[in-house]
Amino acid sequence: MQKIIDVTELALRDAHQSLMATRMAMEDMVPACADIDQAGFWSVECWGGATFDSCIRFLNEDPWERLRQFRKLLPHSRLQMLLRGQNLLGYRHYEDTVVDRFVDKAAENGMDVFRVFDALNDMRNLRRSIAAVRRTGKHAQGTICYTVSPLHGTADFVEMAQKLLDIGCDSICIKDMAALLKPQPAYDIVKGIKEACGEATRVHVHVHATTGVTLVSLMKAIEAGADCVDTAISSLSLGPGHNPTESLVEMLEGTPFTTRLNKQKLIKIKKYFAGIRPRYKEFLSNITGVETEIFDSQIPGGMLSNMESQLKQQGAADRVEEVLLEVPRVRADAGFPPLVTPSSQIVGTQAVFNVMMGRYKVLTGEFADLMLGYYGETIGPRDPHVIDLSFKQTGKSPINGRPADLLKPEWHELRDGAVALEGCNGSDEDVLTFAMFPKVAPQFFKARANGPKNLGKDPNAAPAPVVAPPKPAAEHGNGNGNGNGAPHGPALYDVKVNGKTHKVLINQVQ
Amino acid sequence: MQKIIDVTELALRDAHQSLMATRMAMEDMVPACADIDQAGFWSVECWGGATFDSCIRFLNEDPWERLRQFRKLLPHSRLQMLLRGQNLLGYRHYEDTVVDRFVDKAAENGMDVFRVFDALNDMRNLRRSIAAVRRTGKHAQGTICYTVSPLHGTADFVEMAQKLLDIGCDSICIKDMAALLKPQPAYDIVKGIKEACGEATRVHVHVHATTGVTLVSLMKAIEAGADCVDTAISSLSLGPGHNPTESLVEMLEGTPFTTRLNKQKLIKIKKYFAGIRPRYKEFLSNITGVETEIFDSQIPGGMLSNMESQLKQQGAADRVEEVLLEVPRVRADAGFPPLVTPSSQIVGTQAVFNVMMGRYKVLTGEFADLMLGYYGETIGPRDPHVIDLSFKQTGKSPINGRPADLLKPEWHELRDGAVALEGCNGSDEDVLTFAMFPKVAPQFFKARANGPKNLGKDPNAAPAPVVAPPKPAAEHGNGNGNGNGAPHGPALYDVKVNGKTHKVLINQVQ
User: Fold this and answer.
1) Model confidence over A9-54: pLDDT tens digits?
2) Hey, of B148, B215, B235, B293, which one would you mutate to test binding to chain A, going by the most A CBs within 10 A of its CB?
């Protein structure tokens, strides 16, 4: 009797977020939905994370409409989303009733499973959203952001799992956004949770593939009792993305474990997305192999490329090694936060500033807020000297309480702001869109009626050639270098195609 | 106390053979050798397989000189090669004294570890070369070609391991050229060998990465007691190649196992080859992700692309699905040989013939030989009807004995043939080169003095554009479609660059 291992398919959310900057248009996902719906997944992650932002910023798609479409296209599947706790899908803390309304509306529009995390693993930033999910009757999954530091041991993660269950989570997710979770810790943490919280505690494991070791970690997590693992169909897998769904299925053959997945459906889904992926070539991550240096720097792939481009903008691309050494120091000063949105960007940018301008000579507003407690509590103490600098620079006092407690009720103000915008339909959904992206929403509401914009391109279409003015070997009308009168003989041109100059010999035959 | 897991690095042989058609020039490997030599590998695979062929066919490199260079550049390392048993590095059986001389010369020029395999796992094709290695005092590694069929069970592989030890092998290699070895069978076979042959039996495991599951298989093989595993530095890994060396190192952290590898050296080797790989872009395999369909078709990636190009040449690219279904049938009729050079090509080509011309209407000479026993014995019985057809078509009788027993002493004849060639230096090494590649050696001997040819190219250089005769919109000398007289006004050309046709508007500005 084999144990069934459940699987969450990531193709429709984290896979394209990780591999192609969240650019996949709904139109390109629709044809795969029937097969995904029938393949036997425990859930289909299809919303949240950066998809909301990308929909309105780049794709002119209403994210709420995308959710409703998924609900119709995946009638037999649990829809799953990633929610940043008190930050919802935005980049600041929201007042509690906004959190409640967001969860209500997501549930109402079709969401089934809410995976809720906080970048600092601060329980106080998770409580309200978990409670809101519970009230809707949907599945509340509490998330542990996995990271590596001198302060993060197996016991700490197990303790956090217990706290998540205490506040009513239906299941626990171990989320390894940087592919740092090695096989032995994967085993130990899952085993630890099962022993401390009971075998019936549902444990999900989410790992990225960047370091090349995490399919092994999934194997060990499964051996330790994990109930559900996250994978992405192979044609949308690997690199900074996830392990391939089909490889998971095959890996378990002959073991005491098996999935319910239908291999024929998986092949169809694979082939479909293999055709779609090249359309998004310009957005594809430049990480294609594995990157094990992450284990030492603990810098996730996306964060690294961010820092590199910041350095390049400042003409300091050669200082990347210094920044790599600075990041762990800044992270230690900040109390060892996990590095995940938004803490990864905050720590990374401050490390760049430290290298460019001297250590803590200039603090970013976000880093000062992190030091002063405005993002929540960190596992380790934060450096008192840097806290003091943060206070001096911003004039803000350090806080110890829950950041959202400082917020006043804001729904009515948000509603007033939203409905005043051209194109706003007055729904709570639109108010939430405005609440999370106040700078992008106005333009989106205005342009919404134009319909979705698909940024994918036919990879076989010849790129529109940029032709530089040709420099013929002789003046027009006269002979060319061969002494023949143009255009009778061959003529040599410099032709610039996609920025490269080619010597092109043109032989006009007729 | 952790058990040390030894590692064989594949970068210098199988990695570039699998990823870039064995095209890497010695010149591009030399700068990495010092770091490879000091990184702590148990052995460095750097010779044999297809490298000998590639050296003389494409790179104008003397393979024996390459071996001597490696010997000098890797003074602290065991050099390892892959040897096709009685076929040596060629494509036919050689008479025993030729086998002896090849092994002697390889040992004399610096080889330490001989991994010897036979495509059919026929022990009789391995005995002579293993004995020859033993006489030189070098390490003789007997190889089990792993495959999947109704007749191949764990017990069969264990039995073969015992036979290999009986003929004097110093260690056993489980060789999984098609990435079919799943974690559970990996565990079972290694455990079975250790139990049947004793814990002290050295077991090496060689897997490819194509299906995405085999790093997990290495983990399970290690848990079962494997002593040494094969990997390739990450920048020359994955796809149809192998698992990344650095990922193996990291995977073991915290487990009862560890490697001796120096991570700083690995990073240097990785970075070096990350710079080299793009130079061989035109040879890179088009398999970049994972391919789990191999588990059903059992067709290795290289074989699939071969068959596809054969079908395309015959204008039948649309019949690939039929061929995929035909391969397992042909393989069954042939007694379930593993699919590895040369059996993979023989079975694949016959499957193409069957689909194109009717089942067994035409047999290739090689397939007839396989059916008649001229490659050796297969695990299962071969179809009597097809054996009969093979006899009728070729006039050759079926044999049961060891194929090489039919061969007469041939060394003197080979020597006479070689020394008669322009540029042959008269050495035994040159005779062996001629023996293995009688069609390619003459040209190589003649051109050898010109020195090695590096096929790598600067990836940033603009490709030489191939310009097709342009088709102007009107006859030459007259106006174009815009009614302007050429070449005064803009002219629209079809310009073919690298096979793609671009509409190019040329505006001759002066």
Assistant:
1) 999 999 999 999 999 999 999 999 999 999 999 999 999 999 999 9
2) B215
Q: Look at A470 and B219 and tell me if their CB atoms are within 8 Å.
A: no
Does B493 reach chain A within 8 Å, measured CB to CB?
yes
Residues 6+ apart with CB under 8 A from A419: A426, A430, A431
- Residue B184: per-residue pLDDT: 98
Choose among A48, A93, A118, A164: nearest CA to A338: A118
The Cα–Cα gap between B24 and B392 comes to: 44
| ipTM computed for the complex | 0.86
CA distances to A273, B10, B38, B268 from B15, in Å = 28, 5, 19, 17
Mean per-residue pLDDT of chain B: 90
Report the 10 Å Cβ neighbour count for B418: 24
Q: Nearest-CA residue of chain B relative to A238?
A: B289
Contact check, Cβ <8 Å, A238/B185? no
- Asked if the bond preceding B487 is cis, omega within 30° of 0, the reply is yes
Q: Which residues pair with B479 in a beta bridge?
A: B485
Per the DSSP assignment, residues forming a β-bridge with A176 are A207
Q: Which helix (H) or strand (E) holds B21?
A: none
Q: Give yes or no for A343 touching B (CB within 8 A).
A: no
B7 backbone dihedrals φ, ψ, rounded to 5°: -135, 135
A485 beta partners: A479
- Which residue out of A467, A492, A494, A505 would a mutagenesis test of the B interface target, given it has the greatest number of B Cβ atoms within 10 Å? A467
Average pLDDT, chain A: 90
Both tokens assigned to A296: 């030492």
One-character DSSP codes across A136-197: HTSEEEEEEE---STT--HHHHHHHHHHHHHTT-SEEEEEETTS---HHHHHHHHHHHHHHH
Beta strands in B168-224 (DSSP E): 171-176, 203-207
B153 touches chain A (CB under 8 A): no
Residue B280: is its pLDDT beyond 60?
yes
Residue A212 has its nearest CB partner, among B247, B295, B506, at B247
Q: What percent of chain A is modeled with pLDDT above 90? A: 79
Kindly report the backbone phi and psi dihedral angles of residue A70, in degrees, each rounded to the nearest multiple of 5, phi listed first: -60, -40
Whether the pLDDT of residue B215 is over 80: the answer is yes
The H-assigned helical ranges of B202-300 are 214-223, 245-251, 263-276, 294-297
Q: How far is A184 from chain B (nearest CA, A)?
A: 6
Chain pair A-B, CB pairs under 8 angstroms? 184
Residues near B141 by beta carbon (within 8 Å), at least 6 away in sequence: B113, B114, B115, B116, B169, B170, B171, B172, B173, B204
Tokens representing A372? 């002063």
Q: Could B477 and A487 be called an inter-chain contact, meaning their C-beta atoms sit closer than 8 Å? A: yes
What is the predicted pLDDT for the residue at B473? 34
Q: How far apart are CA B319 and CA B324, in angstroms?
A: 9
pLDDT in tens, A137-187: 999 999 999 999 999 999 999 999 999 999 999 999 999 999 999 999 999
pLDDT 10s digits, A229-288:
999 999 999 999 999 999 999 999 999 999 999 999 999 999 999 999 999 998 888 777
Cβ contacts of A288 within 8 Å, gap of 6 or more: A238, A239, B288
Q: Rounded to whole angstroms, how far apart are CA atoms B435 and A215?
A: 45
How distant is the Cα of A104 from the closest Cα of chain B, in angstroms? 39
